[in-house]
From TrEMBL, chains A, B:
One Gene Ontology molecular-function label: oxidoreductase activity
UniProtKB keywords: Flavoprotein, FMN, Monooxygenase, Oxidoreductase
Family: Belongs to the NtaA/SnaA/DszA monooxygenase family.
Any matching Pfam family: Bac_luciferase
Protein name (record): LLM class flavin-dependent oxidoreductase
Amino acid sequence: MSRGRKLKLGLFIQGAGHHVAGWRHPEAHSGSENFDLITQLAQKAEQAKLDMIFLADGLTTSAGSPPSVVARFEPITLLAALSTVTRRIGLAVTASTTYYDPFNLARLIASVDKLSDGRAAWNVVTTSTHEAALNFSAQDHLDHSLRYERAAEFVEVVKGLWDSWEQEPYIVNKETGEYIDKRKVHELNHKGKYFSVKGPLNVSQSPQGHPVIIQAGSSGPGQELAAQIGEVVFTAQQSYEDAQNFYSGLKGLLPKYGRPPEHVHILPGLFPVIGATEKEAREKYEQLQSFIDDSRAYDTLEERFEYDLRGYSLDDPVPDIPESSGRKSRPQLLMKLARDKGLTLRQLFREVAGARGHRIVVGTPIQLADHIQKWFEGYAADGFNIMPPYVPGGFDDFVEGVIPELQNRGLFRTDYEGSTLREHLGLPVPANRHSTVPTS
Amino acid sequence: MSRGRKLKLGLFIQGAGHHVAGWRHPEAHSGSENFDLITQLAQKAEQAKLDMIFLADGLTTSAGSPPSVVARFEPITLLAALSTVTRRIGLAVTASTTYYDPFNLARLIASVDKLSDGRAAWNVVTTSTHEAALNFSAQDHLDHSLRYERAAEFVEVVKGLWDSWEQEPYIVNKETGEYIDKRKVHELNHKGKYFSVKGPLNVSQSPQGHPVIIQAGSSGPGQELAAQIGEVVFTAQQSYEDAQNFYSGLKGLLPKYGRPPEHVHILPGLFPVIGATEKEAREKYEQLQSFIDDSRAYDTLEERFEYDLRGYSLDDPVPDIPESSGRKSRPQLLMKLARDKGLTLRQLFREVAGARGHRIVVGTPIQLADHIQKWFEGYAADGFNIMPPYVPGGFDDFVEGVIPELQNRGLFRTDYEGSTLREHLGLPVPANRHSTVPTS
C-alpha cells in the first residue's frame, strides 16, 4: 500500500490538555507549570515510540487563551529539562522569528539539540497576535507579509549559523595541545535586509547536523515558506478533501525548491476523544463540551479573529468578519467551517474551545485507527500531531487503544529504528555548506 | 567571630576547567559540550553542600578564549537540564542585558526558577567585547556607560515582570470552573528610555519569589549597579587589602539604596591548586603552567585589553595600554598586578591564562582553608566562587580536602538548611509590589 512509507506521530503537549475546559474532566490533572506531569506524558509518548513531542508557545497572557496556558514554562527551557528524562523521542519547540534574535535562538535550539544528542526540532512561527508587540518595546506588530519576509531571512541566518561547525571538530590531543580543528569552524558573514551576523556560532553540531525545521503557517506565504524550509508541516485540516488538497498543493510546491516529497511530512492536528464504544466516546465529548464557560466566548473569538464581536448575540449566525493582519489561514478555516455547518457564534466558539479548529474525532480506538489510516493512505496526511483533550487520561486512551491497532495494521513502528529525530523521520543530515575537510 | 555569618561557596563550571591549558593535565577530562561531566560536577558540588553552581557565558568564539569554551552549551538551556539532575543546589546563569530582550530573558530565567523549585540566579552582565555586536546586527557595541544605563532599566523591567504574579495564583476548582485568581496577575505597563513592556509575564513565581540577582561588574558603574540590585557580587580580587577595600566600599554604597549589608554577598573568584604538601601543589601548578602555549599570548591579551600588542616582544615589560570602552575593572586590575610585580607581557599572559586575573592559591587543603578563613573573617569576602584549574580532579581536591576542613572549623554548613537558593544565601523573598490580596 504505502511502499515503506510509515506514519509519523507527534504528541502536542499543552497545559491541562487541548480542550479549553479539559482540566475540569474528573480524571484530568492540572498540567500548568507541572514538570512531573509533563515528564510523565513525554515518557509515555516515548514508550509508545512516537516521533516527537511538540510544544507550542505564546508571548502573552491573552484573555482568549485556555486558562491552563496563561502561565507556562518557557518551552525551550522545558525542552532542555525534558531532554534529560527521555532518551529517544524527538523534542520540538515553537519559537518566534519576530520576537527573537537569530543568534540567540540559533544557540538555544542548537544547545537543546546537543543536550539531547540530536533530537531537537524548531517550529518556526512568526507570531500572529498584535498584543505580543506590546511586550517587546514595539509600537506595531509587523505586517503579515513582512513577518514572513523576516522569517525567511531569519531561518537562512539560523541555518547558516548551524553550519558554522562541521562534524567532529574536536582533536583534544594533550601531547600536541591541539583542541579544535580550526578548519572545521567557519564564519557566516551574513548581511541582509533584517540581519547582519558574522558568526561562527559557539555551539557545535549534534549527530543530526541541524535541528529539524517545522513550519506551521498554512496561509499562502506560510505554505511557500513551508515548501522552502519545512521538514515537518503542522496544519489544521477539517475535512479529508481539504486535507488532500492542502497535501497535494504543498507537495506540488517542492520541486521549485529542488526538494523531494518525502523530505516534508505533513501532520494535521488530531483531537481524539476515545471510548470503549462510540456511545461512550460521544458521552465523553458531550461532557467535555458541558464544561465550557460561554462567558469566555467573546474574548476567545476576539483573540482568534482579532475582531470584537460583542455587538452580536452569541445566538446570531456567524457574521462576515474582516481579515486581520495577524493570523490568516486559521480564521479562514474557521469561517469556512461556520459557513459549511451554518454555525452561530456560540457554536463557533464551542468548536474553537474544543480543538481550536483542528479535526475532532470521537469514537472507539478502531474508529480512530480507521480515520488515521484513511487520511494516511489517501495522501491527506503523512501522520498526525495528537492533541489530547485532557491529560494524562486523554493521551493514555490513545496510547493504549489506538497505537497497538496502528502497529497491528503495520502502519506504525514497534520500536525506534535510529536515535536522532532525523532518523525517526527518515530525513537526511543536511550537507554542510563548508564541508571540504574529509571527516576523520 | 562572625555572629552566625556563614561562608557562601559557588562552583564556577567552565569548559575543561579555568586554566587555559588545564585540559592537558593527565587527569583532566574534556568538559566541552559534555553534559555527563557537567552533571558529575554539579552533583559533587551538591554533595559538598555548596550554595550554587555558576555558569558564565560568551557570545562569540573569540580567538582569545580558552579552547575548551569556544563551543559550549548555551548556559540557560544547560541550567534547565541540570535542574533535573540536582535537587538542592542553586543554579546561577550569566546573560547579557545588551543582547537580550527583557521579556524573553525574564521568561527564560523565571522558567528555570520554576523548573528547579526556586533555585535559579541570574548573573547580570552587559557584555564587554565589541565582537559580540557583529553577531547581533549591531554596527557598534554600546558604550560602557550606556550599557550600564540600559542594564539598570533592563533589570527594573525583568523584576517588574517577575512581580506580575503573586504567590499561589492557582485555584483550579473543577466545580466552579475557576482556574486562576485573576486578582493575583498584574500588568507592568513599563515605558522607559530603552523598553516599553506591558506584561504580565506568562510564567508564575517560584517558591523563592524572584531568582537571585548576581552582578559581576567591578568598575564604578558596575559597583553602583551592584549596590542597587546585586544580591551576590562576583568579583576578581588579587590581594587581601584590595579585597577589603572593595568589600567595605561596596557595602558602604548599600545604605543609599536602603539595603542592609547582609543582603549582598561578595564572592571573589578563587583558583585553587591543591596538593598533599605545598611542594606537590607547587609542582602541580608549574606543570599546568608548562602546558601553556605562548603563541596564543597576543590573541589572549588583545581579547582582554581590546588592544593589539603585536608591536612588542613578549619579553618586553608591560607597556601603558589605553582604556577601551569594553571591560573596565579587569584590565585595571591586571595592569596593577603587572606594575606591582614588574611583569613582562609573557608573564602577564601567563597570569591571565591561568586564572584570568582571579586570585590563584597554591597549597595544601589546610593552607586553602586558612586563606578562605582569613578573607572571610577579615571582611574581604563573604565567600568564594571556586574556579578549579581542571576537571573533575581539580574540584575533587577541593571537595575532599578543603570542604571538610571548613566544616570542622565551623565556617561552612554540613547540610542545607532550606530548599531554595534564597534560603541557602539567607536572602529574603522580595516583597511583591502588588501584594494586596492576602495569601490563602
